[in-house]
Design brief:
Low-confidence stretches of chain A: 1-34
Strand content of chain A: 35-45%
Number of helices of chain A: 1
Largest sheet of chain A: 4 strands, antiparallel
CATH superfamily of chain B: Beta-grasp domain
Oligomer: heterodimer
Number of strands of chain A: 28
Number of strands of chain B: 5
Number of domains of chain A: 1
Distance between the termini of chain A: 46 Å
CATH class of chain B: Alpha Beta
CATH architecture of chain A: 7 Propeller
Strand order of the largest sheet of chain B: 2-1-5-3-4
CATH class of chain A: Mainly Beta
Strand content of chain B: 25-35%
CATH topology of chain A: Methylamine Dehydrogenase, Chain H
Order of helices and strands of chain B: EHEHHEEE
Chain lengths: ~400, ~90
């Protein structure tokens, strides 16, 4: 069979801009030392992605978008390893499915989607539904990337994101048939790497819980001791696996100490997930989705408590970010500049983030399309945008100005 | 010969083609779609998932009939047939 084509009539100004799919290698455009730094905030929504940029002062922002109009954008990443400046977006059309796009100019223009590169093998019987997370490899592995996807699986690229392979240890894990989808689907949404030990990493999924590998991803052990599963009968509330973990964070200077926001429960582990203990000290609810590590202080973590699974809104209709500066011994509400009445908001698991400036910027987006920012590590906040589509992902970075 | 009509949303995945002519023997709608992989693999990935199933919110018509109500991808596509790919009702 041969195939010939008939060109579509182009309508001036309406056809999508075509852009060659560039190969990502260590030779991709670099943010050289001579280029000015800019704050880059990538916002993924249910109807496209927005890009906000500002100079280092972060006082005035330029908002661009939506890119990928009508497509959900659950995962974004700006990679700066080895001076690279490449941005990834996981887009998902309700009609035409999920794909990965890249940008080499800090999100101004994006590649057209090529053939689907993140794909399950035929023998798995599974098909990609959503890319939930794009994570860079270690700084010592500049062309390594990871994707966490739905149905729950981990993919790895060793060539800068051009080709991807599923992690077979997880794909064929004996627990896999018993993992159950949470409200958002059966997703692997969190990838945590040990910067010191290249053979150790952890992932989290809803629902399945936390799994850790100590042999470079060949085998995985459930690491959920002490994490409760409120949705199970009382006598089964602490299973080996099956917890609905919403997010894990850690600081690279103390990689063994993990913080965990659970579907009911706020925990810390000091031994790479071997055991967990409760740190819900002074929060209005231990239910929530989002959790963010301070970029410079290993004792400081941010969360946004949510009232309950059956009422996913900020407690008392007050939009409060909670911050601990002592690794969870106590938490304090951050409210300056945030609405403290009639604020029935929700902040999803990847919608709270931080930049890496000396005075860290903290950012979060809500399901109602509001985007807030703090230039002073959470002490005070301002609204950067309102009326955006529902926000599912916010990622901040310091980029070389393109 | 089979004519395959693509929606505007997929033309950019197929070198700006809105209509493709498939020459040679084609047995079924599934055969015709798989033949698309040679010319426009990215377009096929948008129509079918990696397990070879038509995506949930995509409809495929052969000579005006929705294959969901015929024999799916096994629906015969005889010489001269027109296959239309169209976005199904969906949104939010």
């Amino acid at each position: 069979m041969t195939v010939s084509g008939e060109k579509v009539k182009k309508t001036r100004g309406r056809a999508p801009a075509k852009k060659t799919r560039a190969k990502a290698t260590a030779k991709t455009p670099r943010a050289g030392a001579s280029r000015k730094e800019e704050a880059l905030v990538l916002v993924g929504t249910m109807k496209g992605a927005f890009v906000l940029r500002s100079d280092k002062s972060r006082k005035k922002w330029k908002v661009e978008g939506p890119h990928f109009r009508g497509e959900a954008v659950y995962a974004l990443l700006h990679d700066t390893r080895e001076g690279r400046s490449r941005t990834f977006a996981a887009t998902n059309s309700m009609h035409w499915g999920p794909t990965l796009r890249t940008s080499d100019d800090n999100g101004k223009t994006w590649s057209e989607p090529g053939p689907q590169t993140v794909r399950f093998p035929a023998e798995s019987g599974r098909a990609l539904a959503q890319i939930w997370q794009i994570a860079p490899g270690r700084t010592t592995e500049p062309n390594v990337f990871y994707c966490g996807v739905e149905p729950a699986a981990l993919f790895e690229s060793r060539d800068g994101g051009n080709t991807w392979e599923p992690n077979k240890g997880l794909l064929n894990h004996e627990h896999q048939p018993k993992w159950q989808p949470g409200g958002g689907g059966l997703c692997l949404h969190t990838i945590v790497l040990d910067p010191k030990n290249p053979r150790r990493m952890a992932v989290a999924m809803s629902t399945g819980g936390v799994y850790r590998s100590d042999d470079g991803g060949k085998s995985w052990r459930a690491r959920n001791v002490g994490v409760r599963a409120q949705f199970l009968p009382e006598e089964h509330r602490y299973p080996e696996f099956g917890q609905c973990v919403h997010k894990i964070v850690h600081h690279p200077s103390r990689p063994e100490r993990l913080f965990l926001q659970n579907h009911w429960g706020l925990y810390r582990s000091d031994d790479w997930g071997d055991s967990w203990h409760d740190i819900a000290n002074g929060v209005p609810s231990d239910f929530g989705f989002a959790m963010q590590m301070h970029p410079h202080d290993p004792d400081t973590v941010y969360i946004v408590p949510i009232e309950a699974d059956v009422f996913r809104a900020t407690p008392e209709a007050r939009l409060r970010v909670y911050r601990t500066k002592n690794a969870g011994a106590s938490w304090h509400a951050l409210t300056k500049g945030l609405p403290q009445s009639d604020a029935y908001e929700n902040v999803l698991r990847d919608a709270l983030t931080a930049d890496s400036f000396d005075s860290a910027g903290i950012y979060f987006g809500t399901r109602s399309g509001k985007l807030f920012a703090s230039r002073d590590e959470g002490d005070s906040w301002e609204e950067l945008a309102d009326g955006l589509p529902p926000i599912v992902c916010v990622k901040a970075s310091v980029a070389g100005a393109a | 010969m089979i004519r395959l009509e693509l929606p505007k949303a997929l033309c950019s995945y197929a070198d700006e083609n809105s209509s493709l002519v498939l020459e040679g023997p084609v047995g079924t709608v599934g055969d015709a779609l798989v033949a698309l992989r040679r010319k426009a693999p990215a377009a096929l990935d948008r129509i079918m998932d990696e397990q070879g199933a038509v995506r949930r919110h995509v409809n495929v018509f052969v000579n005006g009939e929705n294959i969901r109500f015929l024999d799916g991808l096994s629906t015969p596509a005889s010489d001269g047939a027109t296959i239309l790919v169209i976005a199904a009702v969906s949104g939010g």
